[in-house]
Amino acid sequence: MKRILLTGCEGQLGRAFQELAAARPGEAWRFTDKDQLDITSAPALEETLSAFRPQVLINCAAYTAVDRAESEPGPARRLNVDAVAHLAEACQKQGTRLVHYSTDYAYHNGLNRPLREDDPPRPKSVYARTKLAGEEAALSLCDQSLVIRTSWVFSPFGHNFVRTMLRLGAERERLRVVYDQVGTPTYAPDLAGATLALLDLHRPPTGLLNFSNEGVTSWYDFACRIMELARLDCRVEAILSADYPTPARRPPYSLLDKSRFKSLSNYLIPHWHDSLRQCLMRLGAD
Ligand SMILES: NC(=O)c1ccc[n+]([C@@H]2O[C@H](COP(=O)([O-])OP(=O)(O)OC[C@H]3O[C@@H](n4cnc5c(N)ncnc54)[C@H](OP(=O)(O)O)[C@@H]3O)[C@@H](O)[C@H]2O)c1
């Protein structure tokens, strides 16, 4: 029976995996969040790996507070870089396949056509720099590692743009949302499903891979669509990023080129519109 260890299981992506795993007999999953396995603890990690001996480790744990990272780079680095390096070394030692996630923010390179895995990364925030360094650690320290760069993750769980818009849209008559940042939302259950499709291949891929939902939008259009589908009477106004300063800089363009993913898998990637509908249905807001 295939054994799969998942870290960070209470986050958006971790919870999506928990739901999908329930429908996959023939696999033994162990779900851990930081109370069961703190990935910054190398001894705890090694102990769990040698006791459970997973064939696959899916790392959904991360420091994801993008703005807070600007003022606390140490904790961001410990989780996104140092812990990932330990994970990768431990996986390499045991012959365990490692799946790790990174961000479109790693690109931030001024290109304005869909970004390919071999385009140069030019991260411009602490979060993005730690995620890039974590990718490099995973890929260099573990031969069997796959790093998936994704963007704008949303889900019925945890903190995300969709849940924030639903809350603010119910409280306020108007909202100002930036329209000069373009990308693609990614529904966590689709990202989890796509990852499993890759792991189910006869020879699962290694290296760097982009994944997001289909389609392209701005945060402004994303917000408008949420208000419209949830029938919230809140007027959304388009503003420039310069009028909404945040501690961390975000890329103006981060559409991901998914050619590599599509060449490997027949997984049908849903359009973000359809996945947003699914998410709102789950939240009882459609
Ligand atoms: N969210 C996005 O928009 C986005 C965009 C692009 C890429 N990504 C990447 O996608 C991946 C999944 O993101 P997500 O949105 O699912 O993240 P998330 O919701 O923030 O989940 C991260 C999980 O890791 C846990 N965690 C924190 N410290 C830990 C530790 N020391 N040991 C074990 N677990 C720990 C967190 O617990 P606590 O909450 O209790 O701290 C949380 O349950 C991450 O690699 C992220 O960088 C996310």
Q: Would you give an account of this structure?
A:
The N and C termini lie far apart (40 Å). α1 crosses α7 (188-199) and α2 runs parallel beside α4 (73-94). This protein is 40% helix and 18% strand. It has a domain at 2-153 and 187-213: 3-Layer(aba) Sandwich (Rossmann fold), CATH 3.40.50. It has a six-stranded parallel β-sheet, sandwiched between helices. A two-stranded parallel ribbon has the order 6-9. It has a two-stranded parallel ribbon with strand order 7-12. The protein is an alpha/beta fold. NADP nicotinamide-adenine-dinucleotide phosphate is lined by residues 7-8, 10-14, 33-34, 38-40, 60-62, 64, 79, 101, 103, 131, 150-153, 158.
What is this structure's SSE topology?
Elements: E1 2-7, H1 12-21, E2 27-32, H2 42-52, E3 56-59, H3 68-71, H4 73-94, E4 97-103, H5 126-141, E5 145-150, E6 153-154, H6 161-171, E7 174-178, E8 182-183, E9 186-187, H7 188-199, E10 207-210, E11 217-218, H8 219-229, E12 235-239, H9 259-264, H10 272-282
Parallel strand pairs: 1-2, 1-3, 3-4, 4-5, 5-10, 6-9, 7-12
Antiparallel strand pairs: 8-11
Helix pairs in contact: 1-7, 2-4, 4-5
The protein binds NADP nicotinamide-adenine-dinucleotide phosphate.
